[in-house]
Structure formats: C-alpha cells, structure tokens
C-alpha cells in the first residue's frame, strides 16, 4: 500500500501542532515539510526553528524537503531540529557527493530530488548514496499546480536503475496529487506520495488518507 506524506504547507499554521497530530492519528505515514529560501525557488516558507518547535508535538517522521541553494550549509541544523529524512535537490548543490555524505554523517535518511525537466539519468551516479528519490511532478515552489504527466515516467526509470545497481530505494512523488490521479502515480510504482490540500483541505482527514491509500489496492 502506498504511503502518504501530507504537506504541512497546506495546513493552518496558527494550529500547526494540532494539525500535524490530527493527520498523524488519521493515518499519515510522514509529515512533509517544505523549506524554501526564496532563491532556489521564488517563494519562502519556514526554517529549522519552526521544525524544532513542532518536533515535541508529534512522533511522526519528518520528511524535510530542502528547496534551498547549497543546502549542505544547513543540514546539521535541520537534523538537530528533528528531521528524520532530509531531501536536497540535484540542481541546488555544487558538490552533491559531499552534500549527500553530510546527510548520512548527521544520522538522517538521505533523499535526492529532481525538478520536472531534469532527466532521471542525471542522478543515476548518486543513487548508491540515497535512501529515496523525490520526483517533483510540478515545478517546485508553487502550490495549486496540476500534475505534469511525463514526470511519472521517471518512477520506473529510477526503479529499474536502482534494481540494476542492487539498491533498495524508495520513490516519492510530490505535486498536484489527489484522489483523482493517485491511481496513475501508484500504478507507475511510487512508494510515497506527498499530498497537501487533498488531506489538510478535507473535512474528514482520516477518510481522505484512507481513500488515497486504497487507490493502490483497488486501482
């Protein structure tokens, strides 16, 4: 069954701790925390102080997605703030090997993300250092976008290459995913799906998460 990582960007920030605890009880597997710096992507979100303040409120794993330039500068701080998984962008690192090594040195699981227009094969040389790959199915930095269909082909490409290298890597997909299209994402082989308004915007969040997960079984 596919795992669901609700994106905290879609929650009510005035009730951040309560919102996260609610979706944890509703069946979420991770909380996806998008960190934006206004440089790698045009928008800004929040940083490690917000994550640190949220950490005592829940035991759910924090899936921290760093959409920032040269994230190696802050990896240690995000791990100390409570990140369980730290994902950086292929396009944002001048020394990607050192950045991925730093994530492991800090004791976090290591994720690597690519934008929609970045070919999957660009990250093949780095897969051995990754615990999972995050495929952006929309342009990073903006909410409310529609899923870009061709990005889903990367799921199988990465899975095949990981198998070829003898690696067990999870593939996460982020952007424009809802109950109407998650079946296609799951059918392509995704292990984890990031969902924002599809979960936090639902009146019954437990039912919303169950619907998203059941798509894989029924679809």
Core attributes:
globular; 219 residues; 8-stranded parallel beta sheet; alpha/beta; 8 helices
List the helices and strands and how they pair.
Blueprint: E1 3-6, H1 16-25, E2 30-36, H2 48-54, E3 61-67, H3 75-81, E4 85-89, H4 96-105, E5 109-114, E6 132-136, H5 153-164, E7 170-174, H6 182-187, E8 192-195, H7 197-200, H8 205-218
Parallel strand pairs: 1-8, 2-3, 3-4, 4-5, 5-6, 6-7, 7-8
Helix pairs in contact: 2-3
Describe this structure in words.
It is a single chain. The protein has 219 residues and is α/β, with parallel strands linked by helices. It is built from eight helices and eight strands, in the order βαβαβαβαββαβαβαα. It has helices at residues 16-25, 48-54, 75-81, 96-105, 153-164, 182-187, 197-200, 205-218, and strands spanning 3-6, 30-36, 61-67, 85-89, 109-114, 132-136, 170-174, 192-195. Strands 1-8-7-6-5-4-3-2 form an eight-stranded parallel β-sheet. Helix 2 (48-54) links the parallel strand 2 (30-36) and strand 3. The longest helix has 14 residues, at 205-218. The mean pLDDT is 94.
Name the overall outline. globular
Could you say which structural class the secondary elements and strand pairing correspond to? alpha/beta
E-strand count: 8
Element-by-element helix/strand order = EHEHEHEHEEHEHEHH
Q: Indicate the mean pLDDT.
A: 94
Rg from C-alpha positions? Answer: 16 Å
Question: Which percent range fits the helix content?
Answer: 25-40%
The amount of beta strand, in percent, is: 15-25%
Please outline the major beta sheet. Answer: 8 strands, parallel
Quaternary state of this entry equals: single chain
Structure annotation, total helices: 8
Strand order of the largest sheet: 1-8-7-6-5-4-3-2
Low-confidence stretches: none
- The termini sit apart by 11 Å
């Amino acid at each position: 069954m596919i795992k669901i990582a609700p994106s905290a960007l879609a929650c009510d920030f005035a009730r951040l701790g309560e919102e996260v605890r609610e979706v944890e009880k509703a069946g979420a597997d991770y909380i996806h925390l998008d960190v934006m710096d206004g440089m790698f992507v045009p928008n800004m979100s929040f940083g490690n102080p917000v994550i640190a303040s949220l950490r005592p409120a829940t035991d759910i794993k924090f899936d921290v997605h760093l959409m920032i330039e040269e994230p190696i500068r802050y990896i240690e701080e995000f791990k100390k703030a409570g990140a369980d998984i730290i994902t950086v962008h292929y396009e944002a690192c001048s020394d990607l090997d050192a950045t991925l090594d730093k994530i492991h040195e800090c004791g976090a699981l290591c994720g690597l993300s690519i934008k929609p227009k970045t070919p999957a094969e660009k990250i093949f040389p780095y897969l051995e250092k990754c615990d999972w790959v995050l495929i952006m199915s929309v342009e990073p930095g903006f909410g409310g976008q529609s899923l870009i269909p061709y990005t889903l082909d990367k799921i199988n490409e990465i899975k095949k290459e990981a198998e070829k290298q003898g690696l067990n890597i999870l593939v996460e997909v982020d952007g424009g995913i809802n109950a109407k299209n998650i079946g296609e994402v799951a059918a392509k082989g995704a292990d984890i799906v990031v969902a924002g308004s599809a979960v936090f915007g639902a009146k019954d969040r437990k039912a919303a998460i169950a619907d998203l997960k059941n798509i894989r079984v029924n679809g």
